[in-house]
Design brief:
With about 500 residues, this protein is α/β, with parallel strands linked by helices. About 35% of the residues lie in helices and about 10% in strands. It has an eleven-stranded mixed beta sheet with strand order 1-3-2-4-6-5-10-11-9-7-8, with helices on both faces. The radius of gyration is 21 Å and the shape is globular.
């Protein structure tokens, strides 16, 4: 039983349904793994051990239920999602002590599917960051090298999966916050199409960009979790009324890539990308070609404008979304303020970290009178051009491939004081959020120089997650599986 946590989610589910193990066995195995690895990794903000064990015993009392696709499976949730009875801080001091009385729709759907929620994962404060160094509580470490970051902002979710603390986790992706930690931590991360998964109960950062998705050990596990959380929700006005395909069925027979047209955008395969990243990603693409795939040269000509466009749109929306945290209705309130305006200033200054305050100030500036047309309106126009780039490219190919990040996981503290360099970590991921398309990162192997995981990113067409998962499943079978994370051996 000691290697139970090394199983995949689907393998565990099979053992649970045949009563080879109980839900309590699976939960205890994860809790033991957390006890052994958490002092090194610091992936979690809240551990709900007693509640998880109680839930597992309830499930065992009723017996296995094959109609519940996650029956007895232990999972972890990013702390930006509301969960009834559990703290939800978004990695911020301003929400310290807040316990929501309801579940986010994605969390409720996991529970209804029989999942056991172990706890909440660490994250960059309000999902603002690419390294999980901006959390107000702790810095999460990469299980492959404990001196390096796990990526962000879903770094806790990625590290928890990589450290085998759970069988999958939920993250959120505003500009690459699922795909980047998946790349750095050597796991699979999927950002669905905008509107595929309800955002109800998620604390918003950039409302037109945010999307909830799974991090898992392989493509099949990610497909299983997406199957559960996808679908229309009347409580989210941006949730799309579109049928949810059978993702697991899409994976059957998908090992063959014969005839699949893979687009390689020239903007993603050249200057600025480290050699070992290019080598690993190129090897995966070459293997796909050997398996029958066809390479198509495409171009995304407005890629150079994506960083500036994204940070104008995201910070503008963040400044609006975070205005609600004023010390009156939620979280931290300064008790020494002399009058109302002073209370606002003190509460927000004390509650928000430096990066959040920086983004609020920039966002407020670009939305201010006299500057709106020069910045936000112009960014919205460029955003449309970036979206059109993808539509044009998909007329020539079925999926688009490129590196998830130009560099491997970097040392903790390496760029935390250089926000512009930190923003460039998302250069290959943010265009997808601006366009609202689905995408995922899968491990392409270990870098020859660093020995760290390299992520290959795959872009799909709107609401074609089934086709995206099928190609990812085929590619996954062509690259060598990763060993256990070096930092925890």
């Amino acid at each position: 039983m000691s290697d139970l946590t090394s199983k995949s989610l689907l393998a565990l589910r099979g053992m649970l349904l045949t009563k080879e193990i109980s839900a309590e066995d699976a939960t205890r195995a994860c809790l033991d793994r957390i006890a052994a690895t958490e002092p090194k990794v610091d992936a979690l903000l809240a551990l709900q051990a007693d509640a998880a064990l109680a839930r597992a015993r309830e499930l065992d009392a009723d017996g296995p239920d094959a109609d519940k696709p996650l029956w007895g499976v232990p999972l972890i949730i990013k702390d930006v999602l509301a969960m009834r009875g559990a703290p939800t801080t978004c990695g911020s001091k301003i929400l310290e002590g807040f316990v929501p009385p309801f579940d986010a729709t994605a969390v409720k759907r996991l529970k209804d599917a029989g999942a056991v929620i172990l706890g909440k994962a660490n994250m960059d404060e309000f999902a603002m960051g690419s390294s999980t160094e901006n959390s107000a509580y702790k810095v999460t470490r990469n299980p492959w090298d404990l001196s390096r970051v796990p990526g962000g902002s879903s770094g806790g979710s990625g590290a928890a999966v990589s450290a085998r603390q759970c069988f999958a986790s939920l993250g959120t992706d505003t500009g690459g916050s699922i795909r980047l930690p998946a790349s750095f931590c050597g796991c699979v991360g999927l950002k669905p199409s905008y509107g595929r998964v309800s955002r109800y109960g998620m604390v918003a950062y950039g409302s037109s960009l945010d999307q909830i998705g799974p991090l898992a050990r392989n493509v099949s596990d990610a497909a299983q979790v997406l199957q559960v959380i996808a679908g229309h929700d009347e409580r989210d006005s941006t949730s799309v009324k579109s049928p949810v395909p059978d993702y697991m069925a899409a994976l059957k027979g998908a090992e063959s890539l014969k005839g699949v047209r893979i687009g390689l955008p020239k903007e993603y395969w050249g200057q600025g990308v480290e050699g070992e990243i290019l080598a690993r990603c190129r090897a995966a693409v070459d293997a796909a070609v050997a398996a029958g795939a066809e390479i198509v040269d495409v171009s995304l000509p407005h890629t150079d404008y994506a960083i500036a466009t994204y940070y104008i749109v995201a910070m503008a929306e963040a400044s609006s979304n975070l205005a609600r945290f004023d010390g009156v209705r939620y979280g931290h309130r300064d008790k020494d303020a002399a009058e109302l305006l002073d209370m606002y200033k003190r509460s927000r200054t004390q509650g928000f970290g430096d990066e959040v305050q920086r983004r609020i100030i920039i966002g407020t500036y670009v939305l201010s009178s006299g500057y709106y047309d020069a910045y936000y309106r112009k960014a919205a126009q460029v955003r449309r051009l970036i979206r059109q780039d993808f539509l044009d490219a998909f007329e020539k190919c079925d999926v688009i491939c490129g590196p998830s990040c130009p560099v491997p996981a970097f040392p903790i503290g390496g760029v935390v004081d250089d926000p512009l360099t930190m923003y460039l970590m998302d250069i290959f991921t943010i265009s997808l959020n601006l366009a609202g398309l689905p995408g995922m990162s899968i491990p392409a192997g270990l870098g020859e120089t660093s020995g760290l995981p390299v992520g290959l990113q795959i872009f799909g067409q709107y609401f074609k997650e089934d086709a995206l998962l099928a190609v990812a499943h085929g590619l996954e079978a062509l690259v060598p599986p990763l060993p256990d994370p070096a930092g925890l051996r």
